[in-house]
Amino acid sequence: MPSTSTEPTDDSASPGAVVLLSGGLDSTTVLALARERHPERPLYALSFRYGQRHAVELESAARQARRYGVAAHERVDLGHLGRLTASTSALVKGSPHEVPKGRDAATIQGAIPVTYVPARNTLFLAYGLAWAEALGVREIWLGVTAVDYSGYPDCRPEFIESFEQTANLATKLGVQGQRIRLVAPLISWSKARIIQEGHARGVDYGDTVSCYAPTSSDDAPLACGQCDSCALRREGFLAAGVADPTRYAPA
After folding, report:
1. Contact, 89 vs 124, CB < 8 A?
2. Are 84 and 214 in contact (CB under 8 A)?
């Protein structure tokens, strides 16, 4: 089963961790949790440019990586993924589809939305796995959640479990008995709990980007306030009882 909490099974299991870092609310919370788990061990942040409309998130990722003192922050260019998936995913530039806006929570958590990017997390994890094995690191942390989310199939526990099994079948570390773990501490948390846990650890949510269709003002991102991600984020802060630091575009 995937490691869905930050409780260590063996504190000497890994000399550090690779953290998938988008610059959004969830991945930044995971970075904070990984730093708490590994206060003296190196963290390696991995971000991706895949033609996403909200590429401004990568600027936040870079700042968060510096805040948490990662040993290295790699930004992988997967621009071809956007081109390959533009016909089906509204989340990438050049897509004929519009980002859905104004949907209620029940609708958001219904059918898989048009913002789903085919195989995105599979590719991200594959790159994370390659880097982890090269580093000799046996933990890969990621911010997927299957509660208060948009229904993406590659955010479910079944997928995380399956990829962890694949990772240990496909790598030198795995076949030699040095088990690689996928750590997904948020997978069963509500958005409110994610925010509460991050807030308690001093996460600067004002410097995270969740919006699928942001604009900018004075070189700072403005969230649209209407897409699915904005709706889940706004409701999460409200339910958590934490002031929402998000800068929203005028209605």
Report:
1. no
2. no
- Helix 157-170 to helix 120-135 angle (10° resolution) is 40
Task: Please tell me the CATH superfamily of domain 17-240, with its number.
Answer: HUPs (3.40.50.620)
pLDDT at 108 over 80: no
pLDDT tens column, 201-212: 999 999 999 999
Q: What are the angstrom distances between the C-alpha of 120 and each of 11, 116, 147, 239? A: 30, 8, 19, 29
Q: Name the helix (H) or strand (E) containing 44.
A: strand 43-49
How many helices and strands in the chain, by DSSP H and E?
9, 7
CA quadruple 19, 22, 27, 31: dihedral positive or negative?
Answer: positive
Alpha-carbon distance 128 to 72, whole Å?
A: 13
Cα dihedral angle (162, 136, 47, 238), rounded to 10 degrees?
A: 70
